[in-house]
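Morning!

As promised:
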Amino acid sequence: MIHLERRRAASRFWTLAVPVVAVLATMLAGAGLFAALGKPPAEALRMIFWDPLLGPNAEYFRGQLLVKAGPLILIACGLAVGFRAGIWNIGAEGQYIVGALSGAAVALALWPAESPLIFPTMVLAGALGGWAWAMIPAFLKTRFGTSEILVSLMLVYVAQNLLAYMAFGPMKNPQGFGFPGSRNLQQYPSAHNAELIAGSGLHWGVVAALLAVIGTHLLMSRHLLGFRIRVAGEAPRAARFAGVSPARLIRFCLGLSGALAGVAGMFEVAGPSGQITDSFNANYGFTAIIVAFLGRLNPWGILAAGLLMALTYIGGDLAQLMLGLPAAAIQAFQGMLLFFLLAFDLLTQYRIRWKGART
Amino acid sequence: MKRRTFLSTTAALGALSLGLPGLAQAQEPLKVGFIYVGPVGDMGWSYQHEQGRQAIEAEFGDRVQTTYMESVPEGPDAERALTQLALAGNSLIFATSFGYMDAVMNVAAKFPNVKFEHATGYKRAENVATYDARFYEGRAIQGTIAGRMTKTNKIGYIGSFPIPEVVQGINAAFIHARKVNPAVEMKVVWAYTWFDPAKEADAAAALIAEGCDVVMQHTDSTAPQAKAQEAGNVITFGQASDMSAFAPMPRVGSTIDDWAPYYIERVGKMLDGTWTSDATWGGIGSGMVGIGEITSAVPAEVKAEALAMADAIGKGEYHPFTGPLNKQDGTPWLAAGETPDDGQLAGLDFYVEGITAELPK
């Protein structure tokens, strides 16, 4: 018989080992899935994890890795701070959309004026938009005690409808022959979040993601506020006795994660995406939740996890293309990663005992 | 071996702009790539494009090699998918959703030797052609059948997005329903999706609850068909694919997007070196729009009337938008006998007179 025995303290070894084990387990189970679909499993895994980095045309894919990982890391850093404090912002997807809309609104309002001030203003607007959208669940929680999980999640759907409304209404390109979608910001030099080095995939959003990693690291390990956040998450009562105001903490954590998600959306719409369209959001806000947990809510972990997640997207596309794997198999593969992560997480809090119950 | 040379030639990223090295090698099959916005099993839009891809394989056999990527979201992911297809040596790439437009233009600029075909878009280049179908021709026939068969005189229409293609369809259906039945009213529900069975089912249920006994859809799932089947006395039309599983009731006819003839023609042109960038807008005449089998639930004389109209449209004798027609606000649009040019239709953003619904702006 297997018994679970609660550990007195979380295992340090398993805390670090679980993500690695989860990735390995995903590879194994994924190999089984691909084999069951009649595709060569080893080749599929090589295409997902190896080819985008070092295979043919890897120069292109490595750049795309940054493009895909940038927003994930940026959003996940903000989410991780809140998750550490036990404040669950599940609506980063909505904050990402509103940030993109706010940034694009600045650019579209000023079009076709050219000025070096336009892009920084867009960044500010993006942060403000995401922040404001996250302040809704923060206000409702501090004032009426509503669940920030539900409110922030539901606001994603509101944001999606707002996005569709904007793409078909006020932000529609007047020169677009009545078709939906805004002007393409890639064709507006002052607003374009272009690659800093051509072909590298490196744009301001990627730079911001790296700054967010460093900033989160400093906040959580060097700053009093970071200490308070950790205490609030691990021992809420103790935190209150230590003079931490729960309301302020909620506003700070939701506001920070909202602002970072908003900025991520703004960099995306001004750069790789270029356009406000009804399908602009690509689930970055939800995927970032997986990234945050896969990275153990640690900024450096998130950096690695974001890159790994991006790898499964780009490699997954490659496997689909070269081996004819169905898109759903790739999605199931990515889902398994979170599944195994949560499953193996048990080992950090519990130890497994074998007991001969009946001898 | 080929991969090796490929790697070295693209070693510098600048080489991306030089296009594809592998192309010059003769004897190799022509590589043709597709990206689909939905899964190939959606039984609607992407499914029909997949049928077209399979038709290419069947037609040309060893001379072509096709690959596809499904469920590719519009935006940066599409740009990456298109680049991947180009890097993998495809020399003709079909991008089968409107939202891929700017991604196609960006990638086409980087790969001048690769030809791109973009469905339903309006931007073209030396190596980018566009193609689209005159779905409104099928709607005219649906409108005729609907106008003859409705008992409640209420026709429901599930719109996807208020874009010209959809507005054309609503207008064409309404004009022809009114023509045979002056008491007909049209109710439009916007689903704001191309494919979402749950939303489409809700929209159909709402229309049926309002007394509509005809439900037309410009969305791709069979959910509205299932709702109509439950209701029993409601008729529907297959959209994008034939949806014949719901025949003879509720599905009494359909508008089928048949891309196969066009795809075969374009691949043929690639093979004999005569491909040029064109804007194709095919209809019943060229076979791009099919109307499916009109079932036994439709009275024989109505069926004959519908088939005669399809025949006239196919031969170019009749245009579904023939004046006199006024705009919704009563201002004149087309004089008696006048027909709109394609440019005007492609930007259609108003309802015709008689539709009481408001077009979202």
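Residues 72-296 of chain A form one domain.

Hope this helps with the figure draft.
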